[in-house]
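Hi F.,

I've been meaning to write this up properly since the lab meeting, where we talked about keeping a consistent format for the predictions we share between groups. The idea is simple: the sequence comes first, exactly as it goes in, then the structure tokens exactly as they come out, then a line or two of notes. No screenshots and no reformatting. I'm using this chain as the first example so we have something concrete to point to.
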Amino acid sequence: MAEYLFGLVVALALRRERRLRDRLDLLALSDTDLLDNYRFPRHDLIELIQELEPGLGRRTRRANAIPTQTQVLVALRFFASGSFQNIVGDIGGPSQAAVSRIIRDVSNALSNKAVEEIRMPSTAQDLSVSAQTFRRMRNFPRVIGALDCTHFAIKGPSVDENIYVNRKRYHSMNVQVVCDAAKLIISFCARFPGSTHDSFIWNNCALRHWFDRGDFGNYLLLGDTVYALESFLMTPVTHPTTVPEERYNRGHCRTRVTVEQTFGILKSRFRGKGAWLPQVMVPGAAGDGARVKFMGFGGGNLGYGAPAAYRGMESGVMVMVFPEGKR
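Output, unedited:
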């Protein structure tokens, strides 16, 4: 009897896994379904699956292991909808725990890719090409990136909850992003809670340290008026009074707008409630502070990095205590 029950449990589990694979067959889904539910066209999904295969492919004796394709689609469905119920309803098989494991594994695989792919230009040729691309927009010289911060809503954590409340009174992470002229993210810092001011993040991030020590030569970034003017960070003239100042501001605005457009593209693609938002996890006995998985990217602290291999991603949370009125 016990052997019969065990065999029945195994058979049901294998049936659920087969159903999971069958319901998420990339070739069987229409182009419209892929865009609506997974937010990417077919050719991009195929490329992403191929890139993540080394990290997600499992060595197992079982013939029914969940393939990389299915794992990626499950994770993207969650990022797009923010709902476990939608995923379970769509594929009708795995438990929420199984879906959670898939999302964790895909997030870790994306984290590894982020460390490789998200980086500032570092060679003389890359810097020159980036600056030339920006200059073709509005004739603004020596610019290699547009800088800004944006808020991603999170569920308020149980530890230090108040520092995650931003000026609009909801819990968030304030994330600093630098993009290039093609609206590709080349650096981001996801270490700070929602109450942190944009300028504080800039003054305490690794990227500013690199600029300050001259690693990017005479190239510079564009930022808005919340930042202080620096030799490597150009900001608008607060109260322009001359024609050259007005012309400068127009060129600055029309060049820096790329980062605003980047935010729009990102948030419109994953616009579901809770979709692609940070998951703040506060360890219990570990006591090593909060850690963040942002936009599917986890990872350890990258520190300031080596100049020969700039990495654009900073993870982990810096918990700050702000005097009243100084956020």
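Notes:
Confidence is low (pLDDT under 50) at residues 4-22, 273-311, 315-327.
The longest helix spans residues 243-269.

If this format works for you, I'll send the rest the same way.

G.
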